[in-house]
Structures
1.
Amino acid sequence: MRLAILSDIHYMSAPPAKPFARRGEYGDTFLLRAVHRFNRFIKPDAVLVAGDLLHDPNDPAAEGLLEELKKTLNILTVPYLVIPGNHDPAHELFYKVFADHKEPLDVGKFRILPFADPETPINNACRLPEDFDRMRQARENWAGELIALQHVPVGPADNHPCEYNFDNADAVLEAMKKYDFKLCISGHEHAGLPTREWNGITLVTAPGLCESPFSYLILDIDEAGAVTVTRENLAMEPALRLEDHHVHTTFAYCNENLALHKTRELGKLFGLSRIVYTEHSSHLLFTKDECVQKLPFYIGTSAANPSSNRTPDYFTEQQEIEKSFEMTGSELDYDQYGRPVVHPADRAKLQFCNGAIHAMDSLCPGGDLSKMNEEFMALNEAILRDGVQALAHPFRIFSFNSSKVKYPAPAELFEPLADLLKKYDTAAEINFHCNQPDEEFFALCLQKGVKISLGSDTHNLYEVGEFYPHVKFLDKIAPGWRSDPQEIMLQA
Ligand SMILES: [Fe+2]
Ligand SMILES: [Fe+2]
């Protein structure tokens, strides 16, 4: 059984006037990043949110903010349970949005009992008689394990490593012991607390998601009831000096919510050492409809109507970037003859180019595999000869998530493509966007001394520098890389 614990999102409707450790203005973005990680990579059996979803209980927009967070939580593919904290609005309003979160959540042999204990001075809590009664009722007709979820950390009154506790903490602990609770999960203390045991009950306090490095907990509970707690961060380790070489902008037709100043700020909060904006070159030259019709691929730059050209606007917007942290580049498309879809004068102004295959003429259901392989290699050779810094998502074209045509990556091309990358001194991009990179191919690249480029392929703010899978991928195929990341990594 695996639980993911989030706490203290402190979502705010606007950034605070003064610098503040709590980055609640990005609460929705942090939550969305966590939710996507849980769904795709961490796969918990349930997700618990331990209170303080909002920062200001009196925010006139409180109900709308809670609705936004609920919409994001509903993306979870597993059940979740939410409780209010001392920063959340009155229970009447909170449970208007989270009406079905007052009852226990049963997951397998585990019953999770939520509490909304009243706050007492200062930032403490008190368990009410009716809630002690709910503890007793939760045990009735339940032979499985019991888990208590409350906002304020519970600990023995005379031995608690936190300034916040329950006024009647010892009675709460005694009741948990009496009804044989296994786990007691809280939030509220944004630094989090070390996991402790009290009479066979594991006491866990989750850190605040709103404060750097934006952490959550993963709890693994084995058959014997032993609990393993892992703390993970939404931010990358700054010491790794990771660069994101694949970030889109408002100019992408597939942009979801990007804004340059927010992308920059999140890039810094998430521990990156650089961001490279790489807008689709075809999106800058063609209309959305023309891109859907694959005009850039079939006819190329000469078919672009000058009145649709947004490249000058892209460069104008890019003037506001911080040159020490950000760079202006492009994700270059190529036409069917292998010619870059970009005007040479614009190309000369780009500081970084990802070369990408987004279309192939031979790729179709029931297509000729040898023709596909041949076209794929010819396009790749043209791209690499053209002199890009990195090859974006190699092999993704064969199995792009949103495409109806899906083929396994042709393993017989791993070695030839790795050799081409080496020959043209071009990096191979690890990219998980609608894509699953192949370990065997990247291991070959590393063997041959091909550099690795990391790309988040950001289309939504939650994706900026989201290298959670990239880092785990490298841990697997290149153990020891963390001691000197620059040895294998391309620097822009
Ligand atoms: Fe809090
Ligand atoms: Fe709190």
Note: The longest strand covers residues 215-221.
2.
Amino acid sequence: MIEVKDTLQNQVPNVTFKNVSFSWPGKKELVINNCSFSINKSGLWMIVGKNGSGKSTLLKLINGLLKPSNGVISNLANVGMVFQNPDHQILMPNCRSELLLNINKKLSRKDITNKINFALNKVGLDGFDKRPIHTLSGGQKQRLTIACSLISDKNFVLLDEPTALLDSNSQLKVLDIIKNLTNNKRNPFTALWITHRLEELSYSDAVAEMKNGSLSDWEKPLNFHYN
Ligand SMILES: Nc1ncnc2c1ncn2[C@@H]1O[C@H](COP(=O)(O)OP(=O)(O)OP(=O)(O)O)[C@@H](O)[C@H]1O
Ligand SMILES: [Mg+2]
């Protein structure tokens, strides 16, 4: 039997960009331009930036969907993704089958059930395993996509404006869940959260701005100024 506490991978990710540039095929303009930064501590990291400044492109470079045109990316992390619209991400008809898609199939039935219950509990969806997806609210669907990252033992989750479609109640729930996961000292968990909602920044451990194709230095939210 696995220990349920081991279901969050007990490792801190280490992601480093060194002078990374990227342009989309057929375009001259560098969307990412000589960008350098690292994320090597657990916690909640946030990025803000104007529309089209390259935030989503940066996430695709981190998770390896895109390759840099120049520079070096080193990525020691098990990366999961949460998108703005959970309907673009959820594939299966109910919570259990969606979670099963993401789980290590070699586990015993009992361990699988334990992990499903653990992941649902962590995102405040106790007892939702048999629930059809179409009966979930937007916030509940978003929490399910976070549970999918947990159940597949990701240690670094990239969230691309995960609360943009949510009302303020659901927004806070999702933010609280991620905050609690990243605060857990025994099972360090790391999240990189992209947002346009400036009121969310105070939850972060570090904030940076995407501007002119590059990421600013990480700042504590109290010291961070955005204009
Ligand atoms: N698949 C693609 N092919 C070509 N160009 C793209 C593609 N995806 C994005 N771009 C361009 O790359 C630039 C950066 O886009 P990106 O989506 O990374 O910005 P963003 O900061 O995430 O914006 P938003 O806040 O609106 O989500 C934009 O000019 C966009 O048009
Ligand atoms: Mg984007």
Note: The pocket of adenosine-5'-triphosphate (ligand 1) is lined by residues 24, 31, 49, 51-57 (CB under 6 Å).
